[in-house]
Amino acid sequence: MALRGGEEQLYDAIPVRIRMALTYYSSPSGISGISFRLHRTSLYNSIFHYDNDMLINQHIFGAYGYIAPLLHLRRIEGGDFFDTYVRSFERVWDISQPVEESNFWKQRVALLSGDARDPASSPP
Questions:
Q1: What 3 state SS string does the chain have?
Q2: Out of 25-29, 47-51, 120-124, least confident range
Q3: Nearest by Cα to 39 from 86, 99, 109
Q4: How far is the C-alpha of 11 from the C-alpha of 78, rounded, in Å?
Q5: Whether the predicted pLDDT of 46 surpasses 90
Q6: What separation in angstroms does the CA of 34 have from each of 21, 48, 101, 104, 110?
């Protein structure tokens, strides 16, 4: 995160943006078939995979994500471009952890349940 923060000149804002996104997407996290996971790999793109469609936000060095192109791929018979991205997605998925195991999520659950300790005393 520190490297990417420097590249995009966002510095320490990247972890804050991640926590903010996790908060926004917390509602669907309990729905069957929807999963959020965290990883520590270098980020080359963001992949959103559903059925035979995929949205890929390509990251451009030194540019904010919203400036980068968004590719919409569909699986077609005989094509391997889609499956190349599926394999990349699955490799990261396999080494990632469920968001529910993160300190951020545990602190969030404690705050919502009224069993909150000082959130500043624990790392995110």
A1: CHHHHHHCCCCCHHHHHHHHHHHHCCHHHHCCCCCCEECCCCCCEEEEEECCEEEEEECCCCCCHHHCCEEEEECCCCCCHHHHHHHHHHHHHHHCEEHHHCHHHHHHHHHHHCCCCCHHHCCC
A2: 120-124
A3: 99
A4: 43
A5: no
A6: 15, 12, 16, 19, 22
Interatomic CA distance for residues 52 and 49, integer angstroms: 8
97: its two tokens: 């952890």
Q: How far apart are CA 76 and CA 93, in angstroms?
A: 23
**Tokens 């190349």 identify what position?**
84
Q: Which residues pair with 47 in a beta bridge?
A: 56
CA-CA distance, 45 to 33, in Å (whole number)? 22
Q: What pTM, to 2 d.p., does this model score?
A: 0.65
**What's the rounded mean pLDDT across residues 93-97?**
92
pLDDT at position 91 over 70: yes
Question: For residue 41, which of 23, 64, 26, 59 has the smallest C-alpha distance?
Answer: 59
